[in-house]
Design brief:
The complex is a heterodimer. Chain A is an all-alpha fold. Chain A is about 75% helix and about 0% strand. The chains are: A mainly alpha, B mainly alpha.
């Protein structure tokens, strides 16, 4: 009887192992590329803008001369717009999430709402800008005001907050509900005393992350007509306004290199604000999220 | 005076009925909030449709959809042919995808198949930061760093071109491709990998022959979503691509995308009710339809991939 033998082709094995090594290096380099670009971007923006970053930059209004230009009005505008966006988007977003997770029957309407929210998340921000321009600025005659900008921004980040809040609510274990029902609690009592407290860290984390997107958002507010030259602080929600990213865009678009450096200085401030917000979100996530 | 039993029962009943009133109203309140998102969509579609309709009472639909010249600002004889804006948009999107697809997918394979738990925990948050940089900062970076860098290789490259913002849009969407594709790859059961390893496959072979085919629909869904974001991206293009609606797919020319046109008009003072004012809605409508289609396609693919295992 002929003996069956397994033939191992050494050359072929070596080649396969070599390919694997090349693959590992290539995949790692591709991953590193993203990180290198990020580092380059941060270093570049920092070295470009640091010369204009001083106390006056934070306390001056926009100016024709780069050395006098500042972001006082832009910072104030951002704070005012957020003052509208935070409550509106949080209330609507968390309410929607509670309905979808706690009350909604499994029917076509619910599926439609969920599909609709995920599609809204994919709509470009300029289109939200067009909506805001038509509905808030013109139809409700709010004009090019903080109110119109804040509401538009709320709609823009609503889908993200809904998704974050849904995930936070979904991570609450079933036992918590059962324990509460066993004590005779009603649905609304459970939502108020069990669901919301347990989901708050998750909701806050998601909310801060989506708000940090709103702070950096430019296109939709440009559509609303936020202006770059504002030499006063807003005094009501009907004031005209500018925000930090729009101010940066305006400076970046000028031909003088000095103004582009001022834009970089503004970008540093914007990035610092975003990093602070993100760190806050991470702290909340690590400190308060309960593991069941 | 001590309340009688009768009074106590009455009180209890009242409390319970106010409780049940709350129980009955709260679902309705929350339903209204959830339904609000539908209202937003209706609002978007309605405004776009109405204003686009006005636009087409002034400009012929056929000229718009077939025209190859986009000169809305030519005082007496404006021309509204959408193709230059569409070709500009797709030039940017094509360059972006050429950057994001290989780099994003490689990152996903590395994170899901090669990286140690520790490396993954370090790298993923860094990529998330890359996704969190505001687009206006990317625009500044494209204009003042990437373009001069490219000019040192291509001396004839003008300040405003499609190449530089295209590359930067690509970099912006790398994290999205990487993290969504990695999630899809993670969903491939470990047993399938182990089976291949037991047969003597290398990691590369497992990645290319088991994991990628096994997560293909999830990967496609992530790529389509990324494409949709590249098409809708505004500020990078508005900052660094210039504002010259050019036909053709020449990346070294200044171009204008649909989004950049909308921004340009809304920043200038197009009179309310003028043809130019309505034109941004027609362009916005087209943009909305493009991105909606992409999202529906992506949804379709990601649903299929969930059903596999």
């Amino acid at each position: 009887m002929k003996e069956k033998r397994i033939v191992i082709n050494e050359n072929k094995t070596n080649r396969r192992v070599a390919y694997n090594k090349i693959g590992r290096v290539l995949f790692f380099l591709s991953t590193a590329f993203g990180m290198i670009v990020l580092a380059t971007l941060l270093i570049r923006i920092f070295t470009q803008g640091i010369g204009y970053l001083n106390w006056n930059f934070l306390t001056n209004y926009a100016s024709r001369r780069p050395e006098d230009a500042g972001i006082k009005a832009a910072i104030a505008g951002t704070v005012w717009v957020m003052g509208i966006t935070i409550p509106v988007s949080l209330i609507l977003g968390v309410g929607t999430a509670i309905y979808l997770e706690e009350y909604a029957p499994r029917n076509r309407l619910t599926r439609f709402i969920e599909l609709n929210i995920s599609n809204l998340a994919g709509v470009p921000s300029v289109v939200f800008g067009l909506l805001g321009l038509t509905v808030f600025v013109r139809f409700f005659a709010m004009g090019r005001s903080i109110l119109a900008g804040g509401l538009t921004m709320s709609l823009l980040i609503l889908p993200i907050i809904v998704v974050a809040a849904k995930e936070a609510i979904r991570s609450i274990p079933q036992e918590q509900y059962e324990a509460a029902y066993a004590m005779g609690a009603t649905k609304w009592q459970i939502i108020r005393t069990v669901v919301l407290p347990a989901a708050t860290p998750g909701i806050l984390t998601g909310a801060i992350l989506s708000l940090s997107r709103a702070v950096g958002e430019t296109a939709s507010l440009l559509m609303i007509g936020a202006m770059a030259f504002i030499a006063y602080l807003p005094d009501s929600i009907y004031s005209s306004f500018t925000v930090l990213p729009i101010q940066i865009f305006n400076w970046a678009g000028r031909p003088q290199a000095a103004f582009q450096a001022v834009a970089a200085a503004g970008s540093i401030v914007l990035l610092v604000i975003l990093i602070l917000m993100n760190s806050l979100a991470i702290v909340i996530r690590n400190k308060y999220t309960k593991r069941y | 005076m001590q309340p009688t039993i009768r009074e106590l029962i009455k009180e209890k009943k009242q409390a319970r009925s106010s409780n049940s009133r709350i129980e009955k109203t709260m679902p309705k309140v929350f339903f209204l909030m959830a339904a609000f998102s539908i209202l937003v969509t209706i609002g978007i579609v309605y405004t776009l449709l109405i204003e686009t309709f006005y636009f087409f009472t002034q400009v012929s639909f056929v000229d718009f959809i077939t025209g190859t010249e986009w000169y809305p600002f030519f005082g007496n004889d404006p021309s509204f042919g959408i193709w230059p804006l569409v070709s500009g948009t797709f030039t940017i999107a094509a360059i972006a995808m050429m950057v994001a697809v290989p780099l994003g997918l490689s990152s996903a394979v590395y994170l899901s198949e090669y990286a140690s738990e520790r490396n993954r925990k370090i790298i993923k948050p860094i990529l998330e930061v890359l996704a969190g940089v505001p687009t206006v900062v990317y625009g500044l970076f494209a204009l003042t760093f990437v373009t001069p860098l490219l000019q040192s290789f291509i001396p004839t490259l003008p300040i405003f071109n499609a190449l530089s913002p295209g590359i930067v849009v690509g970099i912006m969407i790398i994290p999205q491709v990487a993290s969504l594709s990695q999630e899809a790859m993670n969903a491939v059961p470990q047993a399938m990998r182990d089976g291949a390893f037991a047969l003597g496959a290398t990691r590369l072979e497992v990645a290319l022959k088991i994991v990628i085919p096994g997560s293909l629909s999830g990967i496609i869904s992530s790529l389509v979503l990324a494409l949709s974001r590249a098409i809708g991206e505004t500020m990078i293009v508005a900052t660094a691509a210039g504002s010259t609606p050019n036909m053709g797919f020449n990346p070294t020319e200044s171009i204008q995308t649909m989004t950049a046109y909308i921004v340009q008009v809304s920043m200038g003072d197009a009179t309310f009710g003028s043809t130019i004012y309505y034109s941004i809605y027609a362009v916005g409508m087209l943009l909305f339809v493009f991105t909606l289609l992409m999202n529906i396609i992506a949804n379709y693919f990601s649903r299929r991939f969930r059903e596999v295992y």
